[in-house]
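Recall from the previous lesson that a structure prediction takes nothing but the amino acid sequence as input. Here we apply that procedure to O-antigen ligase family protein from Plantactinospora alkalitolerans. The sequence below is the only information supplied.
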Amino acid sequence: MSTRKLVSASFANLLIPISGLLVSPFLSRELGPDGRGLYAALTLPIVVCGWIGTYGLQDALSYHLRTGRLSRRTAAKVSLVASVPLGLLGIGLLAVLGRFVFPGGDGHYGQFLLLSLLAPLHILANLLIGALTGASDIRGVNLVKVVPALLRTALVVFACLTLDLGAYWAGLLFVASVSGGLVLGLVRLRSAPERVDSPGEGTGDPPEPPDGTIPARSLLAYSLTCLPGVLAAISSARLDQIVGLPVIGARELGYYAVAVSVAEIPMVIATAARTVLMGRPGSDDRRRGSAVARLAVLASTVASGVLAAIAGVAVPWVFGAAFAPAVVPTVILCAATTLYTSMVIFSAVLLSNGRAAWSSGALVAGSVLGIVLLFLLAPMGAVGAAIASLAGYGVSVVAAGAMVRRVPELPSLRELTVPYREDLRSFGGLAAGFVGRFRRRATADPGPADPGRADSGRAGASLADPAGPPGPATSLRWSVGTLAHRIDIGTFGTGLLFVLAWLRLMVPMLIQLFDSGRPEFNSRQDLVPPVSDLLGNALSLAFILVAAVLAAHGGYRHRPARLWSLAAVLAPFVAIEAAGLLNHQRPGLVSLALPLAAVAIWLQPVRREVLGVIGILGAATATGSILLALVRPDLALISGTAAGDKSGLLGGLLAGPFLHSNVLGIALALSIPFVFCVGHPLIRRGGLVVLLFALFWTGSRSSQLAVAAVLFTYLLIRLFPTRIWMLWTMMTAGVAAVVFVPLLTTDPEAFTRRGRIWHTLLDQWAEHPLLGYGPRYFQREPDLAVELGGEFTHAHNAMVQFLVVGGLVTTAVVALLLVLTWRRSMALATAGFPAAALFLVAFLYVSWLEASHVPTTLAGHATWLPLMVIARLGLPAGGAPPAPAGADRGGRSRAGAAGWLNGTAGALQQRLTKGSPQKTTVSRM
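The prediction returns the following tokens.
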């Protein structure tokens, strides 16, 4: 249980620096360098006041609750009452400090005074954290810490995106966000039941019954004893940065601040371990009770070692090449973090056992040495400051360790720092528990299994089940076997094709982006590095090999059914390549990729849930693009003439690894319908939010319109599941836009100069109306840019694109394929699976102004692969009748992980034939 608490508290504490990393880029770009510095000056003193302003009462509350001298309700009363005088004292001290920080008459001092009025809230928050720590309420501590961080992130980012935010208002949002955690902390502290244990054992003092009496003298004495340690700990953590400006200079302080922001990430483990140790009852077994400390030291050492190893590459890449001198301080501070973890653990053990004075002495000794060395090593700049911190932590560790050894009843230093074998087993058991929980959720719908397997339901058993696999190796084999029975080869192989096609598109673009920078949009200059071509060809070959293996396996195991439908899927690729051959354009090996994939998908039974892979890949694209924009906005954003008259967030439009924001918008719009196929609610909803946010940032109006049509269609399906004619209406409107808009547009400047593109290309097509010009028309026509009015690589309309590259033949067979998939998607929507119809809505509403998503190479996988799967769904494999959508191969009824398989194809056909008025249920998506 202690290990679980350590992991929970560590993840909760980790959200706080993550919140800072998310907010910092938005604030920096919104406020500028001067405003960002003013924001820090307005807020940092208030945060520090919240720590110092408890004057040790936070640790005193932890100790008294742990030893039974206070009840939870009494601790809540003490926190509320004490926050008033402590808050007033903090406001007074901040008012004095403000005179030195803001000496000018520019009004900043008045703003600082107003923000200082909220300092009592931060003091109260830390008092509640201390009380909840003593009550061993890790979840309550997490709530008080995490809720303000999440609230702060949401409010500040939203304000940066929508308002003209200043430093004062940003500081007000930051300071006031702590109120969210206060409410939850007070409610939890007063409402949770009291812990029943044997407090006071081993402390030397008899416990007092928690009858509501406040031991004021004991609280005051313990607080004053803890106060030097509190001041020393805060000075070690923050004073070096506060006094660093006049000591080492602004540039070296900047390097040191970057090093601290990286190296302090593992410190969340030490903070979590301190919370757990301070809340453990004194009657626990000594060796068992110190397991958290040992695991925290191990995890901190490993995490610091990893950060030190990658610092040489990660620091310049994340913060820019100008911060390369911060690498050495980062490595030194990573070593200091391991000492810091041991120091915090030794201090927590002393505090929780009534040795507050000893803890304070150790912390003060290290803090004094660190500050002295900071001045002595100032000529070394950031490196000297890092060495000073390392030495200060080292002295504190040695002093605190020596004091721990002086108390026989306390755990030994070996018990606090070196893991035992059972510790590693318990940590492995915790990981196995998480794996077992995930597998139980994953195997709630066992899926297709062998008809003869009577124990297929066993796949959902827990790893901890005594009847299950006894060891890790057996567990791994058992998990692989479960996965093999759960996912058929056709579904797995199709999902693998999705992933390989996505990697073929993303990996070369990312390599080119980081190697050569963002190229000019639609530039003909070849900036692709050789390694990018090499990896791209390797991924294309992998895609072809997987498709060939799937096709061979499917041809061997299954008898092809309805070859005319397969012919309809293959016809567009054949027609376009035939047009290319007639126009002297040689096809490449990659031209085989999508036709071979069509054959492979047709010969394999594919489950509809595989479409969720596209949604997950789309969410990954959106997340990666957003993170790239926050870390390297020069690579991920476009602005100026490339952005046109559109303005985006953070000074540009989000393009991610793509050449233009419109291309990224199309990729996201085509992925959003399949997010609804993801079974896990958290992943489904989180992916949808990330996709919508990234799409908004792209500024791609055609893609935004397509997604609006998708969401409106989904709402109609959910509200009126039997009114299928509404779905027909939405799709018919999309078809009309694709066909009639380019034909009826006469203004050359209409739709951002698309009118000129359409008029020119339709005139060109009139000269070769039957077969067109082949797939490489836009790359092989040197004079086309002059006629179109710019360098364009596609027709900006799907119908015009197919007419130009493949003529009437290609356009007709593409229309036949769309009719086929339209019928399939309507049947699936009637059966409760509307994702296929939503994809066609997105495809049609994107295609009336764009055509970059319809090339017949792997660059068009987001269009063609879903169409292949939709055309295949519902057809029998091997000539057998369609299997019920709500049953596995053994004929057993199942609800489905996503809740969609609640009807059968046979039942659907019967209902359509009989015209039953029974209401069809559209499942949750």
